[in-house]
Specification:
By secondary structure, the chain is α/β, with parallel strands linked by helices. About 30% of the residues lie in helices and about 25% in strands. It contains eight helices and 14 strands. It starts with a strand and ends with a helix. The chain binds ribose-5-phosphate. Ribose-5-phosphate binds next to β11 and α6. The site of ribose-5-phosphate has 15 residues, from β11 and α6.
Protein backbone atom coordinates (compact mmCIF):
# COMPACT_ATOMS: atom_id res chain seq x y z
CA UNK A 1 0.00 0.00 0.00
CA UNK A 2 1.29 3.51 -0.87
CA UNK A 3 1.95 5.48 2.32
CA UNK A 4 -0.31 8.47 3.08
CA UNK A 5 -2.30 8.08 -0.15
CA UNK A 6 -6.01 8.87 0.03
CA UNK A 7 -8.39 8.44 -2.92
CA UNK A 8 -11.80 10.11 -2.78
CA UNK A 9 -14.56 10.52 -5.34
CA UNK A 10 -17.42 12.84 -6.11
CA UNK A 11 -20.59 11.52 -7.70
CA UNK A 12 -19.46 11.82 -11.35
CA UNK A 13 -17.88 8.38 -11.82
CA UNK A 14 -17.72 6.38 -8.56
CA UNK A 15 -17.37 3.11 -10.49
CA UNK A 16 -14.09 4.26 -12.02
CA UNK A 17 -12.88 5.42 -8.58
CA UNK A 18 -13.58 1.92 -7.18
CA UNK A 19 -11.65 0.32 -10.04
CA UNK A 20 -8.70 2.70 -9.51
CA UNK A 21 -8.65 1.84 -5.79
CA UNK A 22 -8.79 -1.88 -6.53
CA UNK A 23 -5.81 -1.47 -8.85
CA UNK A 24 -3.88 0.55 -6.23
CA UNK A 25 -4.86 -1.78 -3.39
CA UNK A 26 -6.23 1.06 -1.25
CA UNK A 27 -9.75 1.59 0.12
CA UNK A 28 -11.86 4.39 -1.36
CA UNK A 29 -12.18 7.14 1.27
CA UNK A 30 -15.68 7.89 2.49
CA UNK A 31 -17.42 11.12 1.55
CA UNK A 32 -21.02 12.24 2.02
CA UNK A 33 -22.34 14.26 -0.89
CA UNK A 34 -25.88 15.55 -1.12
CA UNK A 35 -28.04 18.11 -2.84
CA UNK A 36 -29.91 20.46 -0.51
CA UNK A 37 -33.56 21.33 -1.24
CA UNK A 38 -32.55 24.63 -2.85
CA UNK A 39 -30.26 22.84 -5.30
CA UNK A 40 -26.95 23.57 -3.54
CA UNK A 41 -24.42 20.75 -3.34
CA UNK A 42 -22.99 19.89 0.10
CA UNK A 43 -20.09 17.54 0.90
CA UNK A 44 -18.64 16.16 4.13
CA UNK A 45 -15.45 14.12 4.42
CA UNK A 46 -16.00 10.96 6.43
CA UNK A 47 -12.37 9.92 6.57
CA UNK A 48 -9.06 11.37 7.83
CA UNK A 49 -7.11 13.37 5.23
CA UNK A 50 -4.68 15.25 7.55
CA UNK A 51 -1.11 15.07 6.20
CA UNK A 52 -2.29 12.80 3.38
CA UNK A 53 -1.78 13.07 -0.37
CA UNK A 54 -5.37 13.24 -1.65
CA UNK A 55 -6.52 12.32 -5.17
CA UNK A 56 -10.10 13.40 -6.02
CA UNK A 57 -11.63 11.43 -8.90
CA UNK A 58 -14.18 13.58 -10.74
CA UNK A 59 -14.74 13.89 -14.50
CA UNK A 60 -16.99 16.83 -15.42
CA UNK A 61 -19.54 15.43 -17.84
CA UNK A 62 -23.18 16.61 -17.50
CA UNK A 63 -24.36 18.07 -15.22
CA UNK A 64 -21.03 19.84 -15.63
CA UNK A 65 -21.65 22.76 -13.28
CA UNK A 66 -22.67 20.47 -10.44
CA UNK A 67 -19.75 18.08 -10.95
CA UNK A 68 -17.33 21.01 -11.07
CA UNK A 69 -18.71 22.58 -7.88
CA UNK A 70 -18.63 19.22 -6.12
CA UNK A 71 -14.94 18.84 -7.02
CA UNK A 72 -14.15 22.38 -5.79
CA UNK A 73 -16.07 21.76 -2.53
CA UNK A 74 -14.23 18.48 -1.95
CA UNK A 75 -10.87 20.12 -2.62
CA UNK A 76 -11.71 22.92 -0.18
CA UNK A 77 -12.82 20.43 2.48
CA UNK A 78 -9.58 18.45 2.05
CA UNK A 79 -7.36 21.55 2.26
CA UNK A 80 -9.19 22.83 5.37
CA UNK A 81 -8.90 19.39 6.97
CA UNK A 82 -5.10 19.50 6.60
CA UNK A 83 -4.43 17.42 3.47
CA UNK A 84 -0.79 17.73 2.43
CA UNK A 85 -1.71 18.05 -1.25
CA UNK A 86 -4.91 17.76 -3.31
CA UNK A 87 -4.85 16.48 -6.89
CA UNK A 88 -7.95 16.63 -9.08
CA UNK A 89 -8.21 13.55 -11.28
CA UNK A 90 -10.46 14.63 -14.16
CA UNK A 91 -10.52 11.85 -16.78
CA UNK A 92 -12.89 14.08 -18.81
CA UNK A 93 -12.64 17.87 -18.62
CA UNK A 94 -15.91 19.52 -19.66
CA UNK A 95 -15.72 22.81 -21.61
CA UNK A 96 -12.30 21.85 -23.05
CA UNK A 97 -13.86 22.12 -26.54
CA UNK A 98 -14.31 25.88 -25.97
CA UNK A 99 -10.59 26.45 -26.33
CA UNK A 100 -10.82 29.47 -28.66
CA UNK A 101 -13.26 32.14 -29.79
CA UNK A 102 -15.05 31.68 -33.08
CA UNK A 103 -16.25 35.30 -32.95
CA UNK A 104 -15.43 38.44 -30.98
CA UNK A 105 -18.56 38.08 -28.83
CA UNK A 106 -17.80 34.69 -27.29
CA UNK A 107 -15.93 33.67 -24.12
CA UNK A 108 -13.03 31.22 -24.02
CA UNK A 109 -14.94 28.64 -21.97
CA UNK A 110 -11.98 26.36 -21.29
CA UNK A 111 -10.02 29.29 -19.85
CA UNK A 112 -12.95 30.21 -17.59
CA UNK A 113 -13.04 26.65 -16.22
CA UNK A 114 -9.24 26.62 -15.80
CA UNK A 115 -9.45 29.87 -13.82
CA UNK A 116 -12.21 28.44 -11.60
CA UNK A 117 -10.21 25.29 -10.90
CA UNK A 118 -7.05 27.35 -10.38
CA UNK A 119 -8.69 29.69 -7.86
CA UNK A 120 -9.81 26.75 -5.69
CA UNK A 121 -7.73 24.50 -3.42
CA UNK A 122 -6.45 22.03 -6.02
CA UNK A 123 -2.66 21.77 -6.24
CA UNK A 124 -2.49 19.92 -9.55
CA UNK A 125 -4.56 18.03 -12.10
CA UNK A 126 -4.49 14.72 -13.90
CA UNK A 127 -6.53 14.60 -17.13
CA UNK A 128 -6.98 12.21 -20.05
CA UNK A 129 -6.97 13.19 -23.75
CA UNK A 130 -7.84 16.87 -23.46
CA UNK A 131 -9.68 18.14 -26.53
CA UNK A 132 -6.55 20.08 -27.45
CA UNK A 133 -3.14 20.23 -25.85
CA UNK A 134 -3.41 24.04 -25.77
CA UNK A 135 -5.94 23.80 -22.90
CA UNK A 136 -3.10 22.67 -20.61
CA UNK A 137 -1.61 26.15 -21.03
CA UNK A 138 -4.72 27.76 -19.50
CA UNK A 139 -3.75 26.33 -16.09
CA UNK A 140 -1.07 27.71 -13.79
CA UNK A 141 -1.00 24.52 -11.73
CA UNK A 142 0.83 21.43 -13.06
CA UNK A 143 -1.32 19.30 -15.38
CA UNK A 144 -0.42 15.67 -15.97
CA UNK A 145 -2.05 14.76 -19.25
CA UNK A 146 -2.58 11.04 -19.82
CA UNK A 147 -3.89 9.28 -22.89
CA UNK A 148 -6.21 6.37 -23.60
CA UNK A 149 -5.01 6.15 -27.20
CA UNK A 150 -2.37 3.43 -26.66
CA UNK A 151 -4.83 1.34 -24.64
CA UNK A 152 -7.64 1.76 -27.19
CA UNK A 153 -5.29 1.07 -30.11
CA UNK A 154 -4.09 -2.18 -28.56
CA UNK A 155 -7.72 -3.32 -28.17
CA UNK A 156 -8.51 -2.14 -31.70
CA UNK A 157 -5.67 -4.17 -33.15
CA UNK A 158 -7.32 -7.45 -32.26
CA UNK A 159 -9.41 -8.57 -35.21
CA UNK A 160 -8.75 -5.53 -37.41
CA UNK A 161 -8.43 -6.37 -41.14
CA UNK A 162 -5.05 -5.61 -42.70
CA UNK A 163 -6.62 -3.33 -45.32
CA UNK A 164 -8.12 -0.98 -42.70
CA UNK A 165 -7.67 2.80 -42.82
CA UNK A 166 -7.88 5.23 -39.90
CA UNK A 167 -10.19 8.14 -40.68
CA UNK A 168 -10.35 11.46 -38.90
CA UNK A 169 -13.95 12.78 -38.98
CA UNK A 170 -12.73 16.38 -39.16
CA UNK A 171 -9.57 18.44 -39.55
CA UNK A 172 -9.30 18.91 -35.76
CA UNK A 173 -8.75 15.19 -35.15
CA UNK A 174 -6.05 14.67 -37.80
CA UNK A 175 -3.17 14.51 -35.29
CA UNK A 176 -5.14 12.01 -33.21
CA UNK A 177 -5.81 9.89 -36.32
CA UNK A 178 -2.11 10.01 -37.13
CA UNK A 179 -1.30 8.68 -33.66
CA UNK A 180 -3.72 5.76 -34.18
CA UNK A 181 -2.31 5.27 -37.67
CA UNK A 182 1.25 5.04 -36.32
CA UNK A 183 0.29 2.65 -33.51
CA UNK A 184 -1.74 0.40 -35.83
CA UNK A 185 0.58 0.80 -38.80
CA UNK A 186 -2.33 1.94 -40.99
CA UNK A 187 -2.78 4.80 -43.47
CA UNK A 188 -4.87 7.85 -42.53
CA UNK A 189 -7.66 9.68 -44.36
CA UNK A 190 -9.64 12.80 -43.37
CA UNK A 191 -13.25 13.89 -43.82
CA UNK A 192 -13.96 17.54 -44.42
CA UNK A 193 -16.63 18.53 -41.87
CA UNK A 194 -18.80 21.63 -41.53
CA UNK A 195 -20.62 22.24 -38.24
CA UNK A 196 -24.15 23.56 -38.85
CA UNK A 197 -25.23 23.78 -35.17
CA UNK A 198 -24.39 22.23 -31.78
CA UNK A 199 -26.08 18.99 -32.83
CA UNK A 200 -25.90 18.99 -36.65
CA UNK A 201 -22.89 18.65 -38.89
CA UNK A 202 -22.45 17.95 -42.58
CA UNK A 203 -19.51 16.16 -44.14
CA UNK A 204 -17.99 16.84 -47.53
CA UNK A 205 -15.21 15.11 -49.41
CA UNK A 206 -12.83 12.46 -48.06
CA UNK A 207 -9.14 13.22 -48.45
CA UNK A 208 -7.29 9.90 -48.77
CA UNK A 209 -8.01 6.35 -49.95
CA UNK A 210 -10.94 4.54 -48.31
CA UNK A 211 -12.45 2.65 -51.27
CA UNK A 212 -12.94 -1.06 -50.45
CA UNK A 213 -11.22 -0.63 -47.08
CA UNK A 214 -12.52 -1.09 -43.52
CA UNK A 215 -12.74 2.37 -41.95
CA UNK A 216 -11.74 3.03 -38.34
CA UNK A 217 -13.27 6.38 -37.38
CA UNK A 218 -11.42 7.96 -34.46
CA UNK A 219 -12.22 11.04 -32.36
CA UNK A 220 -11.50 12.37 -28.89
CA UNK A 221 -15.18 12.24 -27.90
CA UNK A 222 -18.63 11.17 -29.00
CA UNK A 223 -21.20 13.68 -27.81
CA UNK A 224 -24.33 13.62 -30.01
CA UNK A 225 -22.52 11.41 -32.58
CA UNK A 226 -23.39 13.96 -35.30
CA UNK A 227 -19.75 14.20 -36.32
CA UNK A 228 -19.36 10.44 -36.61
CA UNK A 229 -22.66 9.94 -38.46
CA UNK A 230 -21.76 12.60 -41.02
CA UNK A 231 -18.26 11.13 -41.45
CA UNK A 232 -19.72 7.63 -41.81
CA UNK A 233 -21.96 8.89 -44.63
CA UNK A 234 -18.97 10.46 -46.38
CA UNK A 235 -16.76 7.34 -46.23
CA UNK A 236 -19.64 5.08 -47.32
CA UNK A 237 -20.29 7.38 -50.30
CA UNK A 238 -16.57 7.15 -51.06
CA UNK A 239 -16.97 3.35 -51.31
CA UNK A 240 -15.44 2.01 -48.06
CA UNK A 241 -16.13 -1.59 -46.99
CA UNK A 242 -19.33 -2.09 -44.94
CA UNK A 243 -18.95 -2.46 -41.17
CA UNK A 244 -17.25 0.60 -39.71
CA UNK A 245 -15.20 0.59 -36.53
CA UNK A 246 -15.58 3.58 -34.19
CA UNK A 247 -13.10 4.57 -31.48
CA UNK A 248 -13.13 7.53 -29.07
CA UNK A 249 -11.83 8.23 -25.56
CA UNK A 250 -14.85 10.01 -24.08
CA UNK A 251 -18.33 8.51 -24.61
CA UNK A 252 -20.65 11.31 -23.53
CA UNK A 253 -23.44 9.85 -25.68
CA UNK A 254 -25.97 12.65 -25.20
CA UNK A 255 -29.17 13.54 -27.08
CA UNK A 256 -29.54 11.50 -30.27
CA UNK A 257 -26.14 9.74 -29.92
CA UNK A 258 -27.42 6.20 -29.32
CA UNK A 259 -29.94 6.45 -32.18
CA UNK A 260 -27.29 7.79 -34.55
CA UNK A 261 -24.76 5.10 -33.61
CA UNK A 262 -27.44 2.42 -34.01
CA UNK A 263 -28.23 3.78 -37.52
CA UNK A 264 -24.52 3.65 -38.42
CA UNK A 265 -24.45 0.01 -37.24
CA UNK A 266 -20.67 -0.09 -36.71
CA UNK A 267 -19.19 -3.53 -36.18
CA UNK A 268 -17.28 -2.25 -33.11
CA UNK A 269 -17.45 0.85 -30.91
CA UNK A 270 -14.45 1.24 -28.61
CA UNK A 271 -14.62 3.85 -25.85
CA UNK A 272 -13.06 4.32 -22.43
CA UNK A 273 -14.80 4.57 -19.04
CA UNK A 274 -13.67 8.20 -18.47
CA UNK A 275 -17.37 8.95 -17.96
CA UNK A 276 -20.02 6.41 -16.99
CA UNK A 277 -22.88 5.77 -19.37
CA UNK A 278 -25.64 3.47 -20.45
CA UNK A 279 -25.50 2.18 -24.00
CA UNK A 280 -28.89 0.42 -23.89
CA UNK A 281 -29.31 -2.09 -26.67
CA UNK A 282 -26.50 -0.66 -28.79
CA UNK A 283 -24.46 -3.56 -30.16
CA UNK A 284 -20.69 -3.86 -30.47
CA UNK A 285 -19.70 -1.53 -27.61
CA UNK A 286 -16.38 -2.32 -25.93
CA UNK A 287 -15.58 -0.16 -22.90
CA UNK A 288 -11.86 -0.12 -22.18
CA UNK A 289 -11.06 0.64 -18.53
CA UNK A 290 -8.79 3.57 -17.64
CA UNK A 291 -8.03 2.30 -14.12
CA UNK A 292 -4.60 0.87 -15.07
CA UNK A 293 -3.48 4.17 -16.67
CA UNK A 294 -4.88 6.39 -13.89
CA UNK A 295 -3.68 4.20 -11.01
CA UNK A 296 -0.19 4.08 -12.52
CA UNK A 297 -0.14 7.91 -12.65
CA UNK A 298 -1.46 8.21 -9.07
CA UNK A 299 1.13 5.72 -7.77
CA UNK A 300 3.87 7.57 -9.64
CA UNK A 301 2.84 11.03 -8.38
CA UNK A 302 1.82 10.12 -4.80
CA UNK A 303 4.20 11.67 -2.31
CA UNK A 304 5.92 13.73 -5.03
C1 LIG B 1 -14.99 18.35 -32.15
O1 LIG B 1 -14.11 19.16 -32.34
C2 LIG B 1 -14.80 17.13 -31.32
O2 LIG B 1 -13.51 16.59 -31.49
C3 LIG B 1 -15.82 16.07 -31.63
O3 LIG B 1 -15.70 15.71 -32.98
C4 LIG B 1 -17.21 16.59 -31.41
O4 LIG B 1 -17.25 17.41 -30.30
C5 LIG B 1 -18.15 15.46 -31.22
O5 LIG B 1 -19.42 16.00 -31.00
P1 LIG B 1 -20.70 15.32 -31.64
O6 LIG B 1 -20.60 13.85 -31.28
O7 LIG B 1 -21.85 16.01 -30.98
O8 LIG B 1 -20.65 15.56 -33.10
Amino acid sequence: MIKDLCVLTGTANPGLAERICAQLGVPLGKVRSEVFPDGERGVTLQCEVRERDVFLIQPTQAPMGDHLIELLLLADACARAGARRVTGVMPYLGYARQDRRESAREPVGARVIADMLGSGRLDRLITVDLHSRAVEGFFRMPVEQLSAVELLASHLQQGLPEDAVVVSPDLGAVKLAERYGALLDLPVAVVHKHRLSATEVSAGEVIGQVQGRTVVLVDDMISTAGTLEAAAGAVLRAGCAPGLVVCATHALLVGPALERLARMAPRRILVSDSVPGEVGALAGVERVGLAPVLSEAIARLAGK
